[in-house]
Design goal:
The protein is an all-alpha fold. The chain has one domain: Up-down Bundle (A middle domain of Talin 1). The chain has twelve helices and four strands, in the order αααβαβααααααβαβα. The strands form two sheets. A two-stranded antiparallel ribbon has the order 1-4. A two-stranded antiparallel sheet has the order 2-3. The chain is globular, with a radius of gyration of 19 Å. The two termini are 24 Å apart.
Length: 318
């Protein structure tokens, strides 16, 4: 019972820790004159993906690769179908051009790259498919290229960005970063320990737990951020946050985890990777042919319905 309690408490620590770390980092970055664009591109996208990062690092260090892969792939699917679905229902999402030009294609590229790296391992007749350390460095390299590409493409926006006036004490921001980091560490550890115990008691595989409960739990920061943005009629931020987080999850989170310790990749997870790619393609087509580049409320309802079907499929598959 203690482990189950810590499992739930771990999510609280993860979410609140990420919130404090992002707020403190934003304050210090802006006080140093870093532009809002750069802060949003780095600190905010990193902050909403910190729960996935900490869960995966703990899982990788403890040798629980199945949970690491399941969490990343499952979280990306929930980001698209669950979070965008909820955000579109709250307020229709009007999409900026750079989302269609950069973020959606990079989401597809990240998923295809992961599938290719795993498939080449399989093609070499290894006894088990895995994401090797070399694969991890390749994924992280592509993430660096993605950042450089986005910054270069948005150079004019960076030059036009004005320095923000930030209130707050430097010491307070530093304490928030420190406490947030501690919360993330212990939250990630408790979630992984509780997940392992829960999987054993329920007879579930680590992949199943990662694709369902842990994936939804670690997606809560994205859900809260996107829902708040939608409620304030800044729904385009919701879409950019979700797609940016997906890229970060695959290229950096999974890449760093694999660089620490090779991650076994069960063939059945290819199905979930295909579901993620299909979800991204669904968003792209709904924006391309849906008129006015908007995710409307009925599209949001459709996304939620598809996600419910996917969860049912995952539970039946086991």
């Amino acid at each position: 019972m203690t482990l189950y309690f810590l499992f739930v408490l771990g999510f609280v620590f993860l979410i609140k820790g990420a919130d404090w770390l992002v707020e403190g980092s934003q304050s210090i970055a802006k006080r140093l004159g870093v532009s809002d664009f750069v802060v949003g591109l780095t600190v905010v996208s990193l902050g909403t993906s910190l729960p996935e990062l900490l869960v995966n690092l703990n899982a990788s260090l403890s040798g629980n690769g199945g949970l690491a892969v399941g969490t990343v792939v499952g979280s990306n699917i929930s980001n698209i179908l669950l979070i965008l679905g909820v955000s579109a229902i709250i307020h229709p999402i009007a999409v900026q051009r750079n989302v269609l030009t950069y973020q959606i294609p990079f989401n597809m590229l990240a998923a295809l790259l992961l599938g290719f790296l795993v498939s080449t391992s399989f093609a070499s007749f290894d006894k088990a498919m895995n994401i090797s350390r070399l694969d991890g460095f390749v994924l992280m390299g592509f993430f660096v290229l993605f950042l450089l590409f986005i910054v270069r493409s948005s150079k004019e926006e960076l030059l036009q960005e004005k320095r923000s006036d930030v209130q707050g004490h430097f010491l307070k921001s530093s304490v928030m970063i420190f406490v947030g980091a501690l919360g993330l560490y212990w939250g990630g550890k408790w979630v992984v320990d509780g997940a392992e115990q829960m999987a054993r008691s329920l007879g579930w595989s680590n992949e199943l737990l990662g694709l369902s409960i842990v994936a939804i739990g670690t997606s809560l920061p994205e859900l809260v951020t996107s829902a708040v943005a939608a409620s304030k009629k800044n729904a385009d931020i919701a879409l950019a946050n979700v797609l940016g987080s997906n890229i970060f999850n695959i290229l950096w989170v999974l890449g760093l985890s694999a660089a620490i310790r090779p991650i076994p990749f069960k063939p059945m997870v290819h199905t979930d990777l295909a579901v993620f790619m299909a979800s991204v393609l669904l968003v792209f087509l709904s924006l391309l042919f849906g008129g006015k580049s908007r995710l409307t409320r009925w599209k949001g309802l459709a996304f939620l319905f598809i996600y419910a079907l996917y969860l049912a499929f995952v539970m039946v598959r086991g």
